[in-house]
């Protein structure tokens, strides 16, 4: 009986050991490897920041642009904004599993955004604006379930906006202005965006109708759809956006009448909708009431 008991215990321990051995060990060394891989894809570094400062044998938590967590000594922020860097984004950046903020804005990064960035499940802010990035916005961005701010404006991104990003309830700001994005916005775009405060997709090549479900983005203050190929009428339900301050609809193919409900938004200060085919006039009730609206062009 004793031998049987010992055999059972041995097998249990053996199986546990085998299972534990299969789990990859994640340590700070993986962060250093990811950063060095990022450095290796940089072709221009006019200030020699990475060349002189990002060197093996020195603690990477002391490297320029790196902020580490005190507890784990893992990279939680990478900020190399406005450093004149040129190159591509190494896929190994997706191994920085503790990363909360990634800012490489206002540089000269080229090529595609790696799908591996969708592995950064702790990420809250992604700032890649003012670069020369091309290709599509990765579908994997739909896995960034803690992200709050996404800035990709002033690049050369193309293709559709992945619908999955509009299902991330933590989003507060999405700015995709000045790209070559095509396709349409999901008709249920605001069903899962309770915290969205700002959406800017101006100066792209988006088409289709303006979703009436924008009315469910109850926290939105800034909505910009300028210079696309939107058609159809302006949804009257936009008048339900009580916190909306700025609405930009200019240079599209919109038709019908400008909904009078929009003028019920007391927070509205800017309404710009010229260069469409819409008609209508200011409602008399609007003209009689003092409002904060200071810029209104719609014919």
UniProtKB/TrEMBL annotation:
Coiled coil location: none
Gene Ontology biological process terms in this record: defense response; response to other organism
GO CC annotation, single: membrane
Keywords: ATP-binding, Glycoprotein, Leucine-rich repeat, Membrane, Nucleotide-binding, Receptor, Repeat, Signal, Transmembrane, Transmembrane helix
Predominant subcellular localization, coarse grouping: membrane
Domain Leucine-rich repeat-containing N-terminal plant-type, chain residue ranges per copy: 29-69
Pfam families, per database record: LRR_1, LRR_8, LRRNT_2
Membrane topology: Single-pass type I membrane protein
Keyword check for Ribonucleoprotein: no
This protein's name: Leucine-rich repeat-containing N-terminal plant-type domain-containing protein
């Amino acid at each position: 009986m004793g031998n049987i008991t010992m055999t059972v215990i041995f097998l249990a321990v053996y199986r546990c050991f085998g299972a534990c051995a299969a789990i990859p060990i994640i340590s700070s060394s993986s962060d250093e490897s990811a950063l060095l891989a990022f450095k290796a894809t940089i072709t221009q570094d006019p200030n020699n920041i990475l060349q002189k400062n990002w060197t093996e044998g020195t603690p990477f938590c002391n490297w320029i642009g790196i902020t580490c967590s005190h507890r784990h000594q893992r990279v939680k922020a990478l900020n190399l904004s406005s450093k004149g860097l040129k190159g591509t984004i190494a896929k190994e950046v997706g191994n920085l599993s503790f990363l909360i903020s990634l800012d490489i804005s206002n540089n000269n990064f080229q090529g595609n955004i790696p799908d591996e960035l969708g592995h950064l499940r702790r990420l809250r802010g992604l700032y890649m604006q003012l670069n020369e990035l091309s290709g599509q916005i990765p579908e994997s961005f739909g896995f960034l379930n803690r992200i709050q701010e996404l800035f990709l404006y002033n690049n050369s991104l193309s293709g559709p906006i992945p619908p999955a990003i509009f299902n991330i309830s933590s989003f507060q700001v999405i700015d995709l202005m000045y790209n070559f994005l095509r396709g349409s916005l999901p008709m249920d775009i605001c069903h899962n965006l309770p915290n969205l405060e700002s959406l800017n997709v101006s100066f792209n090549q988006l088409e289709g109708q303006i979703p009436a479900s924008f009315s469910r983005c109850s926290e939105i203050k800034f909505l910009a759809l300028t210079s696309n190929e939107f058609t159809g009428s302006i949804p009257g339900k936009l008048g339900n956006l009580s916190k909306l301050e700025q609405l930009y609809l200019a240079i599209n193919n919109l038709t019908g009448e400008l909904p009078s409900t929009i003028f019920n938004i007391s927070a509205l200060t800017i309404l710009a909708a010229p260069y469409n085919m819409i008609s209508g006039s200011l409602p008399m009730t609007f003209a009689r009431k003092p409002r904060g609206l200071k810029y209104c062009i719609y014919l």
